[in-house]
Each structure stands twice: as structure tokens, then as C-alpha cells.
Amino acid sequence: MSLRTARKNIVNRAVMIALAATSVTSVQAFAEEGAEEVERIAVTGSRINRTDIESASPITVISSDFITKSGFTSVQEILSMQPAAAGMSLGSTSNNGSGGSATVNLRGMGVQRTLVLMNGRRMVASGTGADSSVDLNTIPVSMIQSIEILKDGASAVYGSDAIAGVVNIITKKDYVGTEISADGSITDKGDGESGGISILHGSEVAGGNLVVGVQYSNRGEIIQSDRDFVPPGESSFVPGGSLGGMVPDGSGGFVPREESYDYTDDSYAQTPNELFSLFSSFNTEIADDTELNVDFMYTRRESNQQMAPQPADIELDRSKLDDGYNDKFDKFDKDGNPVDTLTYKRRMTDAGPRIYEQETDTYRASVGLTGLLSNDSQWDMSATYGRNDSKDSVANSIHAGNMEKSIYQYQDDWFSGDPMNSDFLASEGIMYTEQNEGGNEQFTLAAGYSGVNDYDIGYAVGVETRYESGYYTPDLITQAGESTAAQQFATEGNYSVQSLYGEISLPVTDSFTIEAATRYDNYSTFGGAATWKLGATYSITDSLMVRAVAATGFRAPSVSELYGGDSGSFDYLTDPWKNEEDPQIKVNYTSDADLKPEESESFTAGVVWEVTKGLSTTMDYWKFDITNAISRVNVQNEMNQCFSGNNPAACETINITPEGDLSDMTSTLTNIGQQNTSGIDWNVSYAAGIFKVMLDTTYLLEFEEDGVSYEGTIDGNMGGYSQLKSNLTVSADLTEDINLLYTANYIQGMEGNAWGDEYTTDDVIYHNISAAYHINDDWQVTGGIKNLFDTEPEEVPDGNDMNTVPNIYDVIGRTFFVNTSYKF
User: Fold this and answer.
1) Contact 439, 430 (CB under 8 A)
2) 151-173 CB burial, b ≥16 within 10 A, e <16
3) How far is Cα 658 from Cα 651, in angstroms, rounded to an integer?
4) Residue 33 and residue 11 in one domain
5) Would the pTM of this model clear 0.85, i.e. be above it?
6) Residue 53: predicted pLDDT
7) Domain ends where: 664, 683, 712?
8) What is the pLDDT of residue 51?
9) pLDDT of residue 50
10) Tell me, what's the pLDDT at 288?
11) Is 623 in contact with 699 (CB distance < 8 Å)?
12) Rounded to a whole number, what is the distance in angstroms from the first to the last CA of the chain?
């Protein structure tokens, strides 16, 4: 008997899997009398191959068919639409500081607390170097069979990073034939043109199945000022320059600055990128009881962001200035102290906009062996290697040191208010291209043993060893602090971890099952961490089941958190002293090599109910508590506390003065953070006749971080924590060849506070439609409209871009898409 055949076991009861109409729902399972044979399969969140796919933990499944019909072209776009996503993440509309990466943030608990797997094995961190999360751009959509989202803590099964949940990308395997697909999209404003093509081929080779695929995609740019809702930017850094807060009057004198600079004309609302991916898988039986599987993936990303020309902020020594300029400014402050410096600020439009470019190469190879023993138990061994290499640059950067020297030498030119020649800036060494490089590496060895005995008791044990490293080397000018951009030092480090785990599924009765798991991880950086999980399912009737799971978890500090070089970040903040002219204020970010792991506790409890034929529902309560969280203090909150005078320690915490001197404001990573969040997930699916309907809802009861409550709030730094988010999906099979799909994404309004003024965003609903037509058995065409009514994003005065929060609201607008595939 071969291994593939042996995996199909005769069991006492079989499972009917009721997936939602659109193949996007919580997985549900109910007993069915009469079936005799069912295959044991792997389910995300467990090492035990099982027959009852419904475990104690809630899982959402997104199929490749739904991805195609919805016009999704990236994994990040798919995941960001889920009601369980919240907080802040990166994507196609992240222009400032994204590095072109895309991330997922489950429960709003932080992108670093969501574990991303491919076929149950870890993905290497990827981006521009020393990253703590996976760049979802590295995963080509055309290779995806399905996406499983485990919305529960899973450290006892997978180890670190699975505090908020797990995203498992299942790739296409056992495929025979050739499929060519192409897609394209454009907004109703005529911009953001995007398109792609993919080829998938599978055939029987050397006694096994070989699948090879290639994908190319190109995302077009959109400029912020081309959207009516984007207000003109107002920056105190003006093209003609200002000295001591005054601007040249054209006659050799200076007058108070009244104008500001609009930076939206040069900044992207949608960032362009090009992706090229090559992937393959090979599965074969090398013996009757042993199977070999090999996966390989390579992705090349070339991405761009564009921002307004560099704002240069130069502190000039007054003793080096000509008296003709010095005498025009007060030489003493209000307290009678001499003023030894004058600040020169200039928007360097003479050099042109800052153009950020990234070239990243991500490789992943995995080899596994699975064997069947005489007692129907299984053993498995695997080796997985991942590597990410990156080069990024910033054109039209400004060398602050050379600019200061040039100002002293050519004062009349710099203080005239006239444009500076770009050739002159280049010859003076003022204008240059910043060059950085970085990378990540991961190597994992794993071995396990699992099975189900004659009493239907499932079990699994295993060992793993993993090595992680990362580095990031900024441009030497940036490291030296000679750039007008924030200073940043190099990052480099590594660690290793060895792990043991065990898991059991115990059917106490025909209707009551207990699940338990434990794991011990030993890190080279901080030592050991033990976690456990205990869950249960109870079938009250054939159609009604209750479930619950309690678990502990942890997250080990990443390379960048342990060994990250000090760096500056211009965060959107409100200065309560009103000393700062711009909302972007520099904060020095520092790391700590002595960080300890975060610790978490989670609990979920819910019910799965098949109300009647075609109608089913699930409802789950969830709660996560994190202690010793690795985080930075809320700088805005500390500033406010310092300003109030009620908490002098707040001033010291972020290194500012009670008088509002923010020049050396610092945010250090520590283990003092705490996060508590809870909520309710509710899913309803219904199928009748040609219609299939699914409603997926998350209600956020609480989100508290470091003593501050964020549920129902929004701002530019934390992102959005809407208390109610819901997706409605309606699918209609008009004929065997025509399918219509309608989706609606609801975001409840939130509250915010900007510069002491409270504001409220309205409820938002995005409507999307598509139609799929099977021209014949081999050829399908799908077309649709995203954001059908061109709903504009809500105004967020302290937003991080475009006066809103782009990862929460759609800043692109109505978009038309079409895709087609042909199989032969």
C-alpha cells in the first residue's frame, strides 16, 4: 500500500466541511452518518494530521477562486481586507518609510506578532535588511491554492511570533496541464495602470508531479495631488530658504515667512513596483512508504517611492556669517542669553524630489521527506533555507556638512531666495545618491513523528533547530550624520534556537475531544521559553459544537530589536509647547541587546452551529494579553505628560526638557510594554439556489497598550482600531458559466485628537462588484470594479499621509480590473 493511499483512513465518523459560499469563511465541520473513508489532512495550528478539520481554534480560509474574482493582485491586499486586521501595516499606499514592503497586522497587535508560513513552514524575514516581518510581496499570488488564517495564539505549536495568529500560504501542488493568466487594472482617473502575467505548468515527471510557475507584475504610480480629497501640504521648509524663521524679501532684507510648501505634488499615493517570481514544487514517492517533496521560490522586487525634495535644516554658526546678515537678527534671546546660532531651512527643490529605489532578491528552498510506518504513524524530516538580499538608494539626497560649508562661502547666493543651480549643488558635493544594503537569512532543520492510534488518539512530537541573521548597512554619509536626513548606524547580528514540542488530541467521548500542546525553545540570546496550549471541542448535537482554547505564547526579540543601530525617524507628532513648526518631529530610535522575550496569554471560546441545511454560523470570543512587550513608549503621550507638569519622569523617559526642548527626543526599545485586547468574531454563511452569502464580522471590545485605550480610535502613528468591521459577500451562479460577485467592506467611524482638537470619522462602506464568465471549459474572463461608488477616505488631521491613514482607508478610488486565464 502506497503512502498516498494509506493516508486515507477508515474512521468511525466522517466529516462534512461546510465552507462559505465564496470560499472565505471560518472552517466548519459536522458529523455525517454513512461515510466510511476520509483522508487525514494537515490543518493550520496543529502538527497532527486529522480527519475532523474543525479544531478548537478558529480558522479562516481564502480560496484562489475568490482571490481571482475579487481582483486581488497581492497577498497584502487580500489580508488587509479581513475584519481581523487593524492597527498599522505597510502596503501599496505606504509612501513614507515603507521601503516597498507589505505586511499584515492581525488584531492590530503589530506586524511582528503575526507568523507567516508557507505550506506550514516558516518564511524568511524580508525587506531592506534586518527585518522582523515577512514582506508579503515576495509571495506571488499565482502560486496560491489557498490562504489559511489562524486567529489564535499558536506559540505552543510554531514557537515565536505566533502571538496574534498565523497566516499559512498553501501553494499549488499535484497540478497537471498549463495555465496562462493575465490581469490589468486602471483607476477611473486614468492613472495607476497595473498589470501582470503568469504561467503555471504541471506534469508527471520521474514518477512524481512537477509544478513550475513564473509571474511578472507591474504596479503603476499615483501622485497624491491628483486626488481631490488631498489638501495642499503645508511645510515651513520653502524653496527660497529661511534664516532664523525669516525669508528673503528680494532686496537684501528678511521678512516673516507667510508662505508654505505643498509637498503633495511630488509624493506618491500609490507606489510603483515590479515583481518577478519563479516558483516550483516536486512531489514523488521514492518508495511505497516514503514521499519526497521539494519547494523552491525566488522573487525579485524593484520598487519606488517618491517624496518632496529633501528639507534641509542647518544650524549656522553666527560668527561665520557676514555682519550684513547677522545684524538683521536679534543677538540675544528673551532671557538675555546670547544667540550663537541661526537655523537655515530650505526645501531643496533645486535638487529635485527624493526618489527611493529598492532592489530585493528573496530565495526560499525547502526539502522534506515523509514516511509511513507499519502502525500507520508518520515520520517527517525537512530542511528549509531562506535568504533575502537588498540594495536601496535615495537619489537627490543632501549632504548637510557640505551644504553648511557652501553657505558660509556663498552667503549672498544662499540667502537671496533665488534657485540654486543643480550643477552647482553637484560640484559642491551637496547633492548625492544615498546607497544602502541589507539582508536576512534563515535556516531550519526539523523532524517529527505523528499518528493516530486505534482509539483515535492523535499525537505528534518533534524537534527543530533554526538560525536567523540580519544586517543593514546605511550609506557612510548617513552613518556619519552628514546627511540632512536622520542619522542612522549599521545593524548586524544573529541568533539560533533549538526546540522540542509535543501535541495530543484525545477523544474523551464520541462528542468531546481535548487538545493539548507544549513546546520548549532555547535561544542563544536570552535562554529558554516554555509554552502550552489546552483546548476542547464538544458536539452537543450533530449540528452544534462548542469550542475553547487557552494558550501561552512568546515572541523572541528580533535581530533589529537586539542589534539595531540607532536611527532617526520623523514622526507625525503634536508639539504641546508649539515650538516646532512642522508636524514631523525627529525621534531617535534605539535598540537594546539585553531585551527579553515578550510573554502572552490568550483565550478563545465559541460555538459552531449548522442552523439548517445551507445556513451555518460561528461566534467566537477572543482575548489576548501581552506582558513584557518589546515596544517604544508612546512619545506623544509622554510629551503631553511632560507638558502638563504632573509627571516629570515623562520628560526623562523620552529625553526632553520641561521647557519643550525636543532636539534630542529618544525612544528606546524596552520590555515594559503591555497590551490587552479582546473582541468577538461572528461569521454567517448561507447557500440557497443560485445564491451564496457570507457575513464576516469582528467587534473590538478592548485594545489597550501601555495603559492607553485605543478601541474606536484612529491616528497617524497607531493606525485605526475601529470597533466594528464587517465584510459581506454575495455570490450568484446565474448559469453554469456566469458568476456574479458582490462584496461590501464596512468600517465603523472612529475618534481622534489632533493638536488638542477632537474629531470623528464617519462610517465607511466600500462596494465592489465583479463577473466571471467561462467562455468554455478552458478559458475564463473576469472583470469588475473596486470601490464602485468612489468613496473617499475619511479625514484624519494627524494622519500619516494625505491627511488620512492610507492603510485603513482607500486612497486610490474607483478602479476597473480584468483578468483572464486559459488552460490547456
Assistant:
1) no
2) bbbbbbbbbbbbbbbbbbbbbbb
3) 6
4) yes
5) yes
6) 53
7) 664
8) 58
9) 61
10) 87
11) no
12) 33
